[in-house]
Amino acid sequence: MGIRDIFSTFTNMxxxxxxSFIDTNQEGNFTLLDVRQPVEYEGARIxxxxxxxxxxxxxxxQELDPEKPVIAY
Amino acid sequence: xxxGQGFKQVYNLKGGIAAWQxxxxxxxxxxxxxxxxxxxxxxxxxxxxxxxxxxxxKFYTAATQMAxxxxxxxxxxxxAEIEERHKQRLxxxxxxxxxxxxxxxxxxxxxxxxxxxxxxxxxxxLESSKPxxxxxxDVLSFAMMLEAQGMDLYMRYADKSEDAQVKEILYKMxxxxxxxxxxxxDLFEKL
Lengths: 73, 191
Prior knowledge:
Strand order of the largest sheet of chain A: 3-2-4
CATH class of chain B: Mainly Alpha
Structural class of chain A: alpha/beta
Structural class of chain B: mainly alpha
CATH superfamily of the domain at 28-73 in chain A: Rhodanese-like domain
Shape of chain A: globular
Low-confidence stretches of chain A: none
Low-confidence stretches of chain B: none
Distance between the termini of chain B: 46 Å
Mean pLDDT of chain B: 86
CATH class of the domain at 28-73 in chain A: Alpha Beta
Largest interface: A-B, 46 and 47 residues
Helix content of chain A: 25-40%
Order of helices and strands of chain B: EHHHHHH
CATH topology of the domain at 28-73 in chain A: Oxidized Rhodanese, domain 1
Oligomer: heterodimer
Number of strands of chain B: 1
Shape of chain B: globular
Largest sheet of chain B: none
Helix content of chain B: 55-70%
Radius of gyration of chain A: 12 Å
CATH superfamily of chain B: Ferritin, core subunit, four-helix bundle
Strand content of chain B: under 5%
CATH architecture of chain B: Up-down Bundle
């Protein structure tokens, strides 16, 4: 199962749009979601990302605010 | 999955982390987290942030003593000044939310600055980073790493904190770190 299967309805965000989104939105108003494995998160992550590995996402959805935009990688 | 659970806007970052062109953060999610329990008051969290910023200011100031190139010294001094301004904003915020007539002296007595932004020990960090500070580019790269770690730490604190006002303060701090990172990036481009 890949990220495409999990986010059944999603919009792709490219680098340019992402940078602009980060620059113009205040921290706390959106969620940067790192769905990779902990070892990958520890190696390098986008600052401010929240780690919820893909295999555990379903059981940890309550940790996320559905009202905020979520950008997953 | 997320959209089916009521999440209103869900984006997939095309290219994953490779799409991020800024400074990454690194280390386990627990790094620096021994400083917070989650039940801190807004005053507690401001004191903590002030200590972290002061630790970093001390680090940049001490590093100017070791640097040889005038350009490197200038950059380090600018970074120390930025942290000083950051501290002042935190003290202003403290006074705005604390009913007591607080002086800077009584406020600083509550602050612990042994650890700095990113949860590092300033003395150990200074010692280990000495060989890396050969030119202004090295110094800026290092500062960007510290600021990225600091921003990441503030966001993890926010995630752990239970108080809405504390979360807001921490988001604001993270936002300021983001601005620092952008300024440092601009400075880097000019070198």
